[in-house]
Amino acid sequence: MKPCIYDYTLEQLQEWMKENGEPVFRGGQLFDWLYVKRVKSFEDMSNLPKSLREKLDEHYSILTLNEITRFESKDGTVKFLFGLHDSHAIETVIMRHNYGNSICVTTQVGCRIGCTFCASTLGGLKRNLTAGEIVAQVVTAQQMLDATGERVSSIVIMGSGEPFENYDATMTFLRLMIHEKGLNIGQRHITVSTSGIVPSMYKFADENTQINLALSIHAPNDALRSKLMPVNRRFPFEDVMAACRHYIAKTGRRITFEYALIGGVNDRPEHAQELAEVLQGMLCHVNLIPVNHVPERNYVRTPREDIFEFQRVLERGKISVTIRREQGHDIAAACGQLRAKHMESTAR
Questions:
Q1: Which of 90, 123, 196, 288 could tie 106 with a disulfide, CB 3.0–4.6 Å?
Q2: Closest CA to 163 of 137, 117, 188, 131
Q3: Does residue 24 sit in the same domain as residue 152?
Q4: Which residues bind [4Fe-4S] cluster (predicted)?
C-alpha cells in the first residue's frame, strides 16, 4: 500500500519536491490542494505539471475513507463509521453547536485503556492510526460540510483510543490542523483528551502550544479510579494529578477534568466533596458527563436531580463546573458504540 500523503507536513512535502528535482514552491501548491481545495485525486491538481501529478500518484495515495454507514441525529449530530484499508473500522462524529461545528476524531482502532464504562475498549486495541488516517477524518467531514458552505471550527480528540499512546501521530495531526496554510483551525479550538498517560502529559506540557488538555478523571481518589480505569494502576492518581499541576504551572492554561457520572458508583455528594478538595486551588474546569448506557456493561445513568446536586457541591467548593450537553443520543454517538455493533454483526 502506498503511503498516505496526509501523513506529511508542509515542510516534508517541500523537502520531497526538492529531493525529486521540483521547485520547493510546488510543496505549497500541493498542500493547498489537499487542505484548502480538498481534492480527492492528484489528477485534479491542475496547476501541477502532469509529470509531477503522475509521480505523486505513483508514490502516494490520497486517503479516501470508506463510509460504511452514516447516522444523522435529530439534533444535527452526524456519526460516521469508516472502513480502513485493513478491514478495521473507526468512528468519527460531527457535532453542531450554535457557535460552530465540532468534530470528534479517533486516534486508535479500539483501545487498551480498559475503562469499565466505555464501549471503545470492547475487543481491546487493534492498532494505532497513522497521522494521515486521523487527518482524513477531518478532511472527509469538511468535504461533507463544504456542500452547505459550513466549516469545521473545532476539534476534540475524544474518539476511540488513547491519543497519548499514539503520541507522535497525534502531534503530527495537530500540527497539520493548525497550519495557517491548511485548515487553519485555531489552537484554542482544539482539545486533546487523555486518560492520564503521565510521561506524555509532561511531554505535551513542553510542546509550547495553545491546544487545550482534558483529563478523564472519573473518580476523586486512587482506589475508585483504579476500579473504573485500570490505567490508574500503571499511573496512580497522585502521579496523574502531579502531572496536571505541572501542566498548569508550565503553560498557564486551564485543564478540563471530564467526570462520567455512574449511578451509585461515583456520583454521591461525598464523591463531589472529595473531588472539590482534590482540585482546590487548581486552574481547572470540571465537565460532568452522564454516562451512556452500554449493553455490555451493567452501569446505570445517574438520576437527573443527583447530577444537579453533584454540580452544586462542586460549586460550593468554588470549582468551575458544567454538565455536558448530550448530543446524538438517538444514534449511539458515544465512543465505540457503533463500531461495537459493527464488530458484532461482522462476527455473525
A1: 90
A2: 131
A3: no
A4: 111, 115, 118
pLDDT of residue 134: 98
Sign of CA dihedral 204, 206, 211, 213: positive
Helices (H), the chain: 10-19, 25-35, 50-59, 131-146, 167-178, 198-205, 222-228, 231-234, 237-251, 269-279, 304-316, 337-347
What are 152's strand-pairing partners? 101
pLDDT tens for each residue of 202-239: 999 999 999 999 999 999 999 999 999 999 999 999 99
67 is a domain residue:
no
**Amino acid identity, residue 258?**
E
The whole-angstrom separation of Cα 337 and Cα 296 is 10
pLDDT over 90 at 165, yes or no: yes
Q: Which domain holds residue 179?
A: 80-347
Number of structural domains in the chain: 2
> Mind telling me the catalytic residues?
91, 335
Q: What share of the chain is helix, strand, coil (3-state, %, to 5)?
A: 40, 20, 40
Alpha helices in 20-157 (DSSP H): 25-35, 50-59, 131-146
> CATH number of the domain that 98 lies in?
3.20.20.70
Residues 86 and 44 in one domain: no
C-alpha grid cell for residue 192? Answer: 486533546
pLDDT in tens, 277-333: 999 999 999 999 998 766 666 788 899 999 999 999 999 999 999 998 866 555 555
The verdict on whether residue 292 carries a ligand-binding annotation is yes
Is 66 one of the annotated binding-site residues? no
**Same domain (yes/no): 288, 340:** yes
47 appears as a binding residue in the annotation:
no
Q: Quote the pLDDT of residue 123.
A: 82
Closest by Cα among 269, 219, 238 to 116: 219
pLDDT tens-digit map of 79-112: 999 999 999 999 999 999 988 999 999 999 999 9
> Is 4 known as a binding-site position?
no
Does residue 246 have a known ligand-binding role? no
